[in-house]
Design a protein that fits this description.
It is built from 5 helices and 7 strands. The protein is of the alpha+beta class. It has one domain: Gcn5-related N-acetyltransferase (GNAT) (Aminopeptidase, 3-Layer(aba) Sandwich). The two termini are 23 Å apart.
Length: 158
């Protein structure tokens, strides 16, 4: 497994990984309407917009196994927020997600952060707890025109 910086040409594979991971892991935690919105089903909306990956504020990484992308993660350097951690369902529970988070923690630490926050999906709360994150508050996230998506704001020291 190796890490590389994500580029805008990776957004399709990142979106596919995110979509498959959510469909596999989040079903039953969200209503069908919420889950449809989260995976951008029946929509032209990008799950991982190119402008987010190309932003100087953000850092995204791809983890590859024998040259094939199997996961990705990202952080907002300016805001100190872990934006995403997603792994292909076929290789889930093999420590790849934890490696992604630790790699992003290293980047954040190098940028001067002492802690990171994340808005964890309901299915990912235990994953983040195992990595040292604690619950700050239960909240919702979403965008205009879409349903409110329950989330848990979490924080971890670096």
């Amino acid at each position: 497994m190796n890490f590389r910086e994500a580029t805008t040409s990776d957004t399709r594979v990142m979106s596919r990984i995110q979509r498959e991971a959510l469909l596999e892991r989040a079903e039953g935690r969200y209503s069908p309407d919420q889950l449809r919105h989260m995976v951008a089903a029946e929509s032209d909306r990008e799950i991982v917009p190119e402008k987010r990956v190309s932003s100087e504020e953000n850092r995204y990484v791809i983890v590859e196994d024998e040259g094939n992308p199997v996961g990705y993660g990202g952080i907002s350097i300016g805001e100190g927020i872990l934006l995403a951690t997603f792994v292909e369902p076929s290789v889930a529970d093999q420590g790849i997600g934890s490696r992604i988070v630790r790699h992003l923690h290293d980047i954040a630490r190098d940028e001067g952060h002492e802690n990171l926050r994340t808005y964890a999906s309901l299915n990912a709360v235990e994953f983040y707890r195992k990595l040292g994150y604690t619950e700050v508050e239960r909240t919702t996230v979403g965008e205009e025109g879409g349903p409110d998506i329950p989330s848990v704001l979490m924080k971890a020291p670096l």
